[in-house]
User: Fold this.
Amino acid sequence: MSRHSVIGRVLLTFALFALLLSGCQQPRMSVLEPQGEAGQMQLDLVYLSIYIMVFVCVIVLAIFTYVLIRFRQKPGDNTIPKQVEGSTKLEILWTVVPIILLAILAVPTLKSTFTLAAKPPKAEQPVEVKVTAHQYWWEFEYPELGIKTAQELHIPTGKKVHLELTSVDVVHSFWVPSLAGKTDLIPGRKNTMWMKADKPGTYEGRCAELCGASHALMNFHVVAEKPEEFQKWVKQRQKPSSQPQTAQEKEGKKVFAQNCMGCHAIDGAGLKGPGNKGPNLAGFGDRDKIAGLLENNPENLNKWLHNPQNVKPGAHMPAIDFLKKKDLDALEAYLESLK
Ligand code: CUA
Assistant:
């Protein structure tokens, strides 16, 4: 095979791989394409450390190449070159240079760490959200707006959202690659961070700390809306139209009260039992996903209720397989009617 055709084949392989990998990119889920201020600040730090690493590599390789050529053994010359072991000058040089490089990296990193955890000033009217992680779902509470929801974090665009993060069981980590993160959620501790979305859109979020069997399935998403749209959502959540309309939905509400209220509440539906072990289901019918994973449709709801362990192994949700079909249908109709 000629040299040209080898190079041609190598290039072709690279091109195919590039094409293949470009398909991996999920829309709006990349740290390399930040969609807001916090994400941009974090990416800038990544670039800074890459620049420093490249700088170090180039200098070391240059010295290495120089030494290799300059100090090669010449034919007939058996003398040993001058030894530099214990040279004070060199010792100082390779101690001081890394310290300077680390300082260049550390100062902006520390500054950003504190800036990103600080509470935005009142004048900026940040939206306050308390995030509580559970195995394996997310609770979002807006204390100033009186809203409690799960799995879908609604935020207005162009405004800072200040998050207070904690966990009720094990350590989780809040990560919305294109907006901000990762910040740990630790039982008994409150961590804070803020994020901001410039443009409306749905941004995928993940748990970034191994927290059990369904860690990789602990998905959520952030829905960023124009401020007017966000206000509409807030109004709807504050005054949900959660009363059942049809006879089947009314029946479903009863089934819910008898079987589900121990763990789940539905704000605004008169169903605020003791239950807050599971997600608050207010507005369930409006959510995109069931359990943060399945498309929200009746078929998937049935799949989830029948065997949650199949969808999310280790979830605390029990299988609802003891209900009569009629009751289960009614329950599903009622849940999908919650707006
Ligand atoms: Cu929660 Cu991993």
